[in-house]
Every structure is written in C-alpha cells, then in structure tokens.
Amino acid sequence: MTAPAAASGLALPLGLLLAWGAPALSHPQCLDFKPPFRPRAELGFCTAYAHFGCCDSARDRELMAKYYRIMGQYDDDGFARCASYVQDLLCQECSPYAAHLFDAEDPGTPLRSIPGLCPEYCSDLWSKCRSSVALLSGDPLLAEIQQDRSRLCRQLELDDPDYCFPRLLSNERLNRNLGRVTADNQGCLQLCLEEVANGLRNPLAMVHANDGTHRFFVAEQVGVVWTYLSDRSRLEKPFLNISEAVLTSPWEGDERGFLGLALHPDFKHNGKLYVYYSVEVGPDERIRISEFRVSASDGNAVDHGSERVILEIDEPASNHNGGQLLFADDGRLYIFTGDGGMAGDPFGRFGNAQNKSALLGKVLRIDVSDNDKGPVYKVPLDNPFWHEPGARPEVYAYGVRNMWRCSVDRGDRLTKEGKGRIFCGDVGQNKYEEVDIVEMGKNYGWRAREGFSCYDKKLCSNSSLGDVLPIYAYPHKHGKSVTGGYVYRGCEYPNLNGMYIFGDFMSGRLMSLRQSYTGDWDYSEICMGTGLTCAFPGLINNYHPYIISFAEDEAGELYFMSTEVPSATSPTGFVYKVVDPSRRAPPGSCQYDPLPVKVRSKLIQFKPKESLIDELAAQSRDRAEDLTDVVDEVGPVATDDPPVATARPPSRKDRRRKQKKHKTENGAVRLSGNNDGKPDRGRVEIFASGEWGTVCDDLWDGKSAEVVCRHLGFQYALRAAKAAEFGEGKHLKILLDDVQCQGTEQSLLDCQHRDVGSHNCGHHEDAGVVCGN
Question: What Å distances lie between residue 59 and 42, 53, 64, 93, 662, CA to CA?
C-alpha cells in the first residue's frame, strides 16, 4: 500500500493512500494462466461452476474422487461438520477466479495449496473443521499452525480482499457480465493481442496453405512473400521474390506495389498461386494478375520461371489500384480493382466504376481451373453481364471505388449460417468509408454515392441507378481509409463468433459489426484491454497504428497486420493475433496436429518485440505525482499521524488552480480541435516567443509526433496527423514549419525547424497527433 509514496520519495499517512484505492478489477483467470470457459459436459461435483469456470468434466471427477478420499477419514459427526467446507475449498479450483484465489496470476508465482479465504469464513472453518486443513494441503507450515486460529487465518488471507472466498461470490463488480466480452464505460470492447511476426515491410496479405501444415505466407508490399511455420518460425529463404518487377517506392502512402495473394483451392495438389501487383510497361503503369507454381523440388519456394500473366489492366493514375484476390466458395477467382485513381473517378461520362465496359472499379470473376492448356482463364457462364452488349463478361459487380481487403465468411461452425458471404471495405472520397457485402450483378453506387450520401448529385438522382447501400458507413472524423476484415469463425474464442472485425488505416481504429436478429448491423468499437484485462502470459495490449490488412489462419483464428511507418521499405510491420481474454473454448476442443513440413531453408525463430503496457504501474506513477501535488498544497504530512478519512486526490479545479501559479514555459504544447472530446488527439499548438500558435505539416512525421505525445505525458505516438485533420487553427499564427525531430527531444523547439514564425504554408496544413498508452 505504500508503493506510490515510495515512488515519490514521500511518507504519507495510510489513510491518504487508502482513500485513493482503486476498486477490484475483473480479471478471470484459471490455474493454467488462461481465461475460463463453458464446460462441454455437465459437472456433477462442482456444480456452482457448471456453466462457466475453469474445470471440465474430467477435472470435476478428479476433485470428487479427492473429496471422497478426504471424507473417508471422518466419522459421521466429522462428515456432517466438514463436508461442505471440504467441497467448497476443493471446488475453488473451478472458480473463474482460480488464479487469484490460489495466488497464481503468473507462472512465476508459488501456488497456494488452499484458496485465499476471507477472515470470517476462515474463523468458522477453524472452529468447526480445522482438521481438514492438513488433509487438503501438504504444506507443513499450515499443519504446524493449524491449531492457532490467528496465525492460520493470516496465512490463508489474500493481499487483495476483494478476491477472497466466499466474498468474491457476491462481488457485483467481479461477477457482472462474467464470461462476456468486456466493455469499458463507453461501450468499447476490450480485446488483447498476440504478436505473431515482426520486422516486415508493409505486410499487406497473409494466406494459409490449407493443407494441414498450418503454414502461412505473409506478403510485403515490395514484392517478397515469406513462409511461416505453425510455431511462428520463418524460413530464411523467401517463398516468392518478384521485388525487381514490382512497381512501388519508399514514399509513405504509395498505393502501388505487390497488393494481393491467393492460393488455389487445390493448392495442396496443384501448387498454384495468384498474385496482384503493379508494374511499369514502357511509359504506362499497369496492374498485373499472374499465376505461379510452387517449385517441384521445394514446397516452400515458388518456381519464378512459372509465371503466366492472367490479366493486365492499364492504370491511369498511381492511386486506387485495388489489390484483393480471393477464391470464393464456388471455386472462382475474384479480382477487386480500383476506379483508376485521381479523385472523383473523372474518367468518361460517368466514371470507370459505372462503366461496365471498363475493368476498373469492379469486382471481376473468372475461372482458372483446368487452364494448363488453352486460355489462361475462362469466363463463368453464369456471370451476370455475359450477354449484355458492350459489357465486359468478367464483371461480377460494379460501382466500387477502391475496395481494400475483402474476405469470404466461413459460416457458423455448427449451423453454417452466413457461409459464402463476401465482405469488403470500400475506401471513400471526402466524407465516408463503407463496408459492403458483395453480390452478383449489384451496383455499389460509386461515383453517384459515397457511403449513404450522394457524391455526384446528378448521377445519384438517376432512378435507374439501382445501387446497393452499404451495411455500414462511418464519417471521416473516425477514419479516412477503411481496411476490410473478416467475420470471426475460429474455435478458440466463442464470444467473437459472427463478429465482423475490421479497421481503419489512417486512424488506427479497430471496429466490429454484428448482425442482429432483425438483420441490422450493430457497431462496437474495439479497444485494447486496460488494467488487468490482458494480464495473461504472451498477451499484449498495444499495436502499431497503420492497419493494413486482416487475415485468418487455417483454423479460422483472426489476425491483422499493421506498421509504424506506412512505407513499402520500412521494416516496422507486425502481424498480430486477436484474442478475447474474457472466455476461451473448452480445453481440447480446438486442438490440431500440424502435418510436418519438409524444410530446405534455415529457420529463423520468432522473437517478439512488443510487451504488455503495464497501465497499473503507470497509474501508480501518476498517483505518486498527484500525491506530491497534495503535499505541495497542504504541506508536509507526519508519518505517525492517524488515518485521515477525508483525504482525497486533487480535483480538476485544484489542478487548474495550481497550473495558473506557473507561467507557461517556452515549448509547451497542447491539443485542440478534437470534436470527440478525447484528450489523446488533436491539432498541435505550441507556445513560443510568448504566444500560442500552430505547426505546419511539412516534413511532419512520427518522430515529431513522439516528441509531442511524450511531452503531454503519453507513452506513444500512434499517428502523425496532417492536412488539418483536426481543424484549422485560423485564430492563431503559424509558429513552426519544416519540423524534423529524432524523437528523443524534450520539445519541438529542440528539433530542427525554420525560425519561429517563419513559414511557407497555410492553416490547411496544420499538423496534429494521435497519442496513446
């Protein structure tokens, strides 16, 4: 209880610290350091935990057998006095909070032999059945002190009284929504992550072999694809390397490059794969879809000489290149192209997307089966525009702007409900991002419509448009570049079943949709777990902000890829696995044995780089600083004073009053212009030469954002915002321009920059940040 005071170098009365104590944080955890689960079969002994806890029926039978061995040593009178106590104590191993009861929150903690008991219960146990202690425990210390009630109950007491038995059974905070996905008071779902891979250059596709090996392949934007085995080790030799042919650049945000990868449904036998990438042919830029085969001598390497070009399409601009390839349940190859780039689809009378004679702005569907002889692809006879004059027969759906990341729903594991649906995120223009379900022959509205809103009002008012509205759209204040995701259909986290999880490349938001019984789609934002939520071995609660893509492995578990620097050549990309810490599947229900893989390349073992952000430690530091403020304001506190029940931390008013005492320092920063009211993001304003002003976004990057966020007390800069994303600070002068930081400076004024007040920009280029812990 004295840690905060010790951290600040102060001696404070215990009452002041107790008055500031935090309520118990819900963190269900079993003795194997994993979340609880719903048993597949009924429990016959520990029935209190039959619906949710840490025991399956096999462990329940073992505990019952132990119970009868112990109770067999009692006469009738002893049986009557002790039976309920012995059953209670044995069954706490099945409690959703077993790890807390037995002091086993991590593998390095010694395991108690008897769960932590509340003092009043311990006293009753001692009075009526103290002999059971030695029978339940092999601990010689407990046997030695079991005749001394005071010593025994002190030994069996927990440091955290909220978790002691049986008090935790009636603790509303601990038992509210137990077994459901945790949400904060804003409704944001609290999930966690496992780091799976790192050091990647804009990883934008991850596919599995679907051959029982549980291998997966991760593609980088530069044109290199890596093989990862089921233990997350990586082969030193790339699976595919066409980086010399791929057109891209180190520019942040360059949309050209290696953009898509799909393995043939019969990859296990025919070794075929398909790639989508940007190329330069003479003066022209094109997108190319090619077929490759795996090497006959190495199943983890592509035969680079086997390339056959399936399709090439001229790109009139360097953006909106599409890039998704996938095989749907019908075995056909689906190709998702962008509208050709620039802004507003300015090509032709109605744009490429509405022109069915153009392949841009479309979902294409072709048949690449049995293509070893004859044409490289055929057009399926049931494609919707096969017989329409002037239309390209490959067109499956149209009116799309730039669908970035699409997926096929595997369907519910039991009922197969939802199976075969194709979900896509379609990147918007000026106002909205959208999520669509792609169906044959449908028009998805661009450029007439952006999200639910009209973009081209004349085209939008055309009664023959017949466009399909998205299932969900969100405004640009929440994000400016949707990254489509997957409907979770894995085994390990039952609470996530049916949840469509997606993200935004620019804002770094993770989001989810779930279809209700009425057919509507309900939205929930996803946040990283706070407090103890992610305090499980191997889990983390942070990620790099530029969310590039999503994926699922052979077992259906969900992943996403993001990077710290959105450049095709920056090795700051990661792959993360999504984890629900509130509930797992029953033990044994998701096990699989990967088939062995013949490896001809050196293996590089996975070494994680990220770690759990210990928010509790950070909060303790913050409390220590606030306690220092208390002492500054009320004077020294003697260590032998009695507890002060009325002591409290300083209020916001107190802090504002204290802040007014101090003159604003040169180089101070603040965040403004965030309409959501979140204190971790906004337009950067700096105090220099006696006045507040804005910062121009010329050369503004993540290193400069780090300086601002750290100055404001945040641990991380999640994103450097540009182009007045948080509004224009027209009421202020522009004080800094051409800011270049290393990321370690104390203030922006310590970075390289033009002279204060000198600039060649306008407020439409005001810089901002998104910070986080």
Answer: 12, 12, 9, 9, 63
Quote the radius of gyration of the chain (alpha carbons, Å): 30
Instruction: Give the residue from 465, 266, 466, 298 showing the smallest Cα distance to 368.
Output: 266
Phi (first) and psi of residue 134, to 5 degrees = -65, -35
Residue 230 DSSP label? T
Average pLDDT over residues 93-120: 89
- Reported as a single tens digit per residue, the pLDDT across 463-474 is 888 999 999 999
| Residue 629, CA distances (Å) to 62, 336, 623, 658, 670 in order | 55, 58, 10, 9, 21
How far is residue 466 from each of residues 354, 396, 402, 407, measured CA to CA in Å?
Answer: 11, 15, 20, 24
φ, ψ at 213 (rounded to 5°): -85, -20
Q: Is the pLDDT of residue 648 over 60?
A: no
Q: Helical H runs in 493-614?
A: none
The SS3 call for residue 287 is: strand
Look up tokens 């939802």; give the residue: 418
Let me know: does 619 contact 584? Beta carbons within 8 Å.
Answer: no
pLDDT at residue 618, as a whole number: 54
3-state helix vs strand vs coil in the chain, percent to 5: 20, 25, 55
Q: Which two tokens stand for residue 530?
A: 């706070």
Distance of CA 440 to the CA centre of its chain: 31
**Torsion angle defined by CA atoms of residues 338, 343, 344 and 350, in that order, rounded to the nearest 10 degrees:** -60
Q: Is the pTM of this model over 0.90?
A: no
Q: Cβ distance 90 to 136 under 8 Å?
A: yes
Q: Which range has the worst mean pLDDT, 254-258, 361-365, 706-710?
A: 706-710
Contact at 8 Å (CB) between 323 and 260?
A: yes
Segment 579-588 shows an average pLDDT of 96
The tokens describing 123, both together, are: 């006293």
DSSP 3-state of 475? strand
Question: How far lies 729's CA from each of 163, 701, 767, in Å?
Answer: 50, 19, 10
Using DSSP, state whether 7 is helix, strand or coil. helix
Burial-class residue 2 by CB neighbours within 10 Å (0-12, 13-18, 19+). exposed
Give the integer Cα–Cα distance in Å for 288 and 286: 6
Q: Which pairing describes strands 521-528 and 189-200: parallel, antiparallel, or unpaired?
A: parallel
What pLDDT shows up at residue 27?
85
